[in-house]
Amino acid sequence: MENFNVAILGCGTVGSGVAKILLDMNHELVDRSGKKITLVKIVDLFPAKSASAYNLPLNLFCGGGKDLTPAEASQYIDEIIADQSIDLIVETIGGTGDFLFKVFIDALQAGKPVVTANKAMLAERGSAIFETSNANGAMLGFEAAVCGAIPVIRAISDGFAGDKVVEISGIMNGTSNYILTKMQDEGLDFDTALKMAQEAGYAEADPTLDVSGGDAGHKLCLLIKLAYGVEVDYNHLLIEGIQNIKKEDIDFANELGCNIKLICYARKMNGKIYAAVKPMMVKYDNLLSKVSGATNCVKLENKYTGHHMFVGKGAGSLETAGSIVSDIVFAAKYGYSKKMNAESDFELVDPDNFEFPYNITFSTADYPGITGLVTTAIGDELINIETVSHNRHGSNKTLFSLATMPCTLAQIKRAIGRIRAKAPNVLLDEPVILPILK
Amino acid sequence: MENFNVAILGCGTVGSGVAKILLDMNHELVDRSGKKITLVKIVDLFPAKSASAYNLPLNLFCGGGKDLTPAEASQYIDEIIADQSIDLIVETIGGTGDFLFKVFIDALQAGKPVVTANKAMLAERGSAIFETSNANGAMLGFEAAVCGAIPVIRAISDGFAGDKVVEISGIMNGTSNYILTKMQDEGLDFDTALKMAQEAGYAEADPTLDVSGGDAGHKLCLLIKLAYGVEVDYNHLLIEGIQNIKKEDIDFANELGCNIKLICYARKMNGKIYAAVKPMMVKYDNLLSKVSGATNCVKLENKYTGHHMFVGKGAGSLETAGSIVSDIVFAAKYGYSKKMNAESDFELVDPDNFEFPYNITFSTADYPGITGLVTTAIGDELINIETVSHNRHGSNKTLFSLATMPCTLAQIKRAIGRIRAKAPNVLLDEPVILPILK
After folding, report:
1. Which of B33, B163, B300 would you mutate first to test chain A, the one with the most A CBs within 10 A?
2. Domain locations in chain B?
3. Residue A239 pairs with which residues in a beta bridge?
4. A273 burial level (CB within 10 Å; 0-12, 13-18, 19+)
5. What is this structure's pTM?
6. Architecture of domain A152-313+341-351
7. Digitized pLDDT (tens) for each residue of chain A, 438 residues in all
8. Interacting residues of A325 by C-beta distance below 8 A, sequence separation 6+
9. By C-alpha distance, which of B31, B67, B27 is closest to B47?
10. According to the CATH classification, is domain B3-145 in 3.40.47.10?
11. Do the chains contact at A29 and B161, CB–CB below 8 Å?
C-alpha cells in the first residue's frame, strides 16, 4: 500500500485536533483512502503545551519536543516543504501574514496539497493561492474554513456538481448567533449577551471580527467563489455586524413573526451577484430563524434540486479538525481536482438595489401625525406597506416601525429624505432598516 | 478532451429529468468534470410520451423515436452494455425484478459505472450488486436513492471521511411527513390526510410502500451500510408505518411538546447497530420536529464533528435527477472509488432493548383507580415516570397517557402484562407506545 505522509504546521486548538483524529482512527482512514495515511511531523513553537490537550506523543514534534524559536520553526517548515516523502501539509497556524502566505505558495508550488481552516487568508489573499494550486495540480482543501464541521464545500463542489446554486443564505458566525439568541431568549442587551458569550468561551477577548460580520464575510467570499466561480474582493463586500442591534429591534421583529439573525446572503440574478453580510429579520417559517446558539447553518436554493439546509457546529477543536481530516482522506483517495473555472462575466454588487421586504424602525420625537407623515412619504416612493406596528411612546422618544413589501434600499432612503424635508427634527436617530427574509 | 458518453435506461419522471439537465447545462458539466460528458442514447418503451415533458430530442431514443416492444428495449440495453464507447449507464427504470438485476450485474461486470435512484433494488438485492461494483472497479452511484436531492451519500462517504457516524435519525419519506403535517396542522384524521396527499400528487394510488415505512426502510438500509459498513437485510429491519396514528396520538404528543414524525433511526453502540423505522414523538427543541410537508431531513451525530442536519426535497423529477447528474460528474471526474470495507463484527438489532423515553397511551374502560393501577405497574418494572397526562373521558372509553424516563420496550411490555393480570378487561386496545426523540 502506498504511503501518504502528513505534516501539521501549527498545533493549537485545531491542529492538535487534527493530530488526535489522525492517530485515533488511523485504521479507518487507511481503509477509506486506500493509502497508508501517517502523521509524520508537527511544527509548533511550544510542543509540550500543544501536546497536552490530547496527550500527543512529543516525538512527532520537530525538535523532539523542546520549544522552538520562530527561526527554528521557519527552518523546519522549509524542510517539510522540500521533503519529497511528505505528501500533504495541514496549515493550522492562522493569520494572513506574509510568512504564512509564502508557506501556502511554496508548498503548492512544490506540488504538495495544502489543507487549511484559514478563511481569512483565503478570502483576503486567496487569488494567488488558488491560482498556484491550479497551476501546480496541488489540491487546496478548505472544508474547515467555512462553517467548521458542516461539509458545505464538499456539497457545493461535488454533491451539487449537477446543479447550479441560485441563492445562499446562512448563519455563519456562531458567536453572533449565540449573542442574538441570548438577546432573544433572555431579553438581554447586546453588551450583557456579549459578556456571556465571552464567559462561555464562544467569543474572543477581542470579539470584533465575530460581531462585526468580518468572519462571516470571509466565509461568504469563499462560498461565492465556489458556487458562482466569481472572485470576490473581501474589501468590497458589504458587511454589517450586530453591534447596533437593540432589544427593541428584537421586539419589533418578534411582532412580525421574525427572529433577527446575522445573515450571509448572496443571489445570482441577471448577470449580477447580489451579496452582503447583514442582520436580517428572518420569518419563523424559515428554518434559519430556529437555528439557535453557536450553531451554524447554510441554506442553498439550487436551480434543479430546490432548497437545501445544512446545520452543524461552526467551530471547535475536533469539529473543525474533522473537516480537515476529511479533506486529507479526499486528497489521498482522489488526488488533485481542478477547481471550477471563473465565470468572469458576473458582477458583484451589494444588494441595496435588490428588492427585499424591509422593516424600518423610526425613533421620533413626540409628534402627533407621525404615522401619517411616515406612511405618506413611504407611499410617495411607491413602496407598499405590509404592516404598521403599534407605536412605543417613551418619555423622550417614540418608536415607530413598519414593514414594507419588496422594495429597494434606495427607495427607502429617498422616503426618509422626504420625512426629513417635511419635518427636519422629527427623526432622532438614523432609522434602523433590516431586510426581512421569508 | 476525453469523451464521457452516457446512456439512460428508462425515461420516466426521473430519467427525463436527467436528460434535461445533461442537455441544459452541458457546458458547466464539461467544465466541472474535465471530460466531454455527452448524452448519447436513451432507451424507453414510449419515446414520444417520455420526451414530451421536457421536449427532449427524439433522435436520442433508441429506435429513432418509435415505441419499442419489451424485447426490442431489452436488445438495445444489451447493445449499450456491450458498447465500448459508452462510459456510464443511468438506470431509471425502477423495480427489483430479475431482468433489471441482471442489467446492474452485466453493466458493472463490463466495467461500466451505473448511477441509479433505485433504493428498492439496492436495499433488497444490493449485496451482489455492490460486490460486482467493487470486484470490477466500476462505480455504483446512488446519491439519488436516499432522500432525492439531499447530498447525504456524498456527505457520509467524503464529507465525513475523517469522522465516524454514531447516530442517524431522519425523516426520509415525504408522503408520510406530508400526511402527518396535515394531521398536525389541520386536525385531520389519517384517511382524509392520505386522500389530500394523493390529490396533491405526493402519494401513489397505492400508497402502501410510503405509509407503511417500506420506502423509508430501503433508505435506512443504504445509510446504515454506508455509515457503519454493515450489510443490512431489509427483511430483518424493524419497520412500522404511520397507518395507525390517530388524531388523539397527535394531541398527546403536542401536550408533551412534541410532533409525531416517521423516524428512520440507527445508533451504533457496544458492538451493535440499533435500527428501526418507527413513528416517534419528536420534541419541539429537536429541529426534526419542525420539518414539515413533503420535505426530507437527515440528522447525523458524529463522533468528532457532533450533530448535523441536512434538509431538502426527497423526491421530484429534477430534484432526483440533479443528484444523478452529480454522480455522473463525480464518476467522470474521479473515476471508480472503492467502497468502505464492511465491519462485519457489528450486529444489527431492533431497538426494543435500546433505552428511549417512551410515551404510552392506554385506551381503558371507565375504571376508577386506573391511574394508580397503571403507574404502580410501571413503577414495579423500575420505569421512572416523567409526566402523566390528563385523562380523556369519552362515552365508552378513557384515554390515559404517560411519558417515561429512558427504559426499554421489554420493560414496558412487562408492565402492560402486570396491568392485564391485575384487571383483565380494563385495556380496550393495544396500548400505543411511541419512543420520544429529544
Report:
1. B163
2. 3-145, 158-313+342-351, 355-437
3. A277
4. buried
5. 0.94
6. 2-Layer Sandwich (3.30)
7. 999 999 999 999 999 999 999 999 999 999 999 999 999 999 999 999 999 999 999 999 999 999 999 999 999 999 999 999 999 999 999 999 999 999 999 999 999 999 999 999 999 999 999 999 999 999 999 999 999 999 999 999 999 999 999 999 999 999 999 999 999 999 999 999 999 999 988 888 889 999 999 999 999 999 999 999 888 889 989 999 999 999 999 999 999 999 999 999 999 988 889 999 999 999 999 999 999 999 999 999 999 999 999 999 999 999 999 999 999 999 999 987 766 455 556 777 877 788 999 999 999 988 888 889 999 999 999 999 999 987 777 777 888 899 999 999 999 999 999 999 999 989 999 999 999 999
8. A18, A21, A22, A29, B161, B162, B163, B304
9. B67
10. no
11. yes
Cell of B19: 436528460
Mutation pick from A88, A139, A304 vs chain B, by most beta carbons of B within 10 Å, is A304
Predicted local confidence at residue B344, as pLDDT: 55
Degrees, nearest 5: CA angle B365-B370-B374? 115
Query: CATH assignment of B158-313+342-351, given 3.30.360.10, 3.30.300.30, 3.40.50.300, 1.10.10.10?
Result: 3.30.360.10
Closest of A361, A424, A423 to residue A388, by C-alpha: A361
- Looking at beta carbons, which residues of chain A come within 8 Å of B159? 143, 151, 154-155, 159, 326
Helices (H) and strands (E) in chain B, counts: 15, 17
pLDDT in tens, A300-350: 999 999 999 999 999 999 999 999 999 999 999 998 776 645 555 677 787
Q: Is A309 on the interface with B (CB under 8 A)?
A: yes
Q: How many angstroms separate the CA atoms of A102 and B50, rounded?
A: 56
Residue type, B351: P
If one looks up domain B355-437 in CATH, what number appears?
Answer: 3.30.70.260
Cell 433508505 appears where? B219
Three-point CA angle B232, B233, B236, nearest 5°: 115
Grid look-up 471526474 returns B333
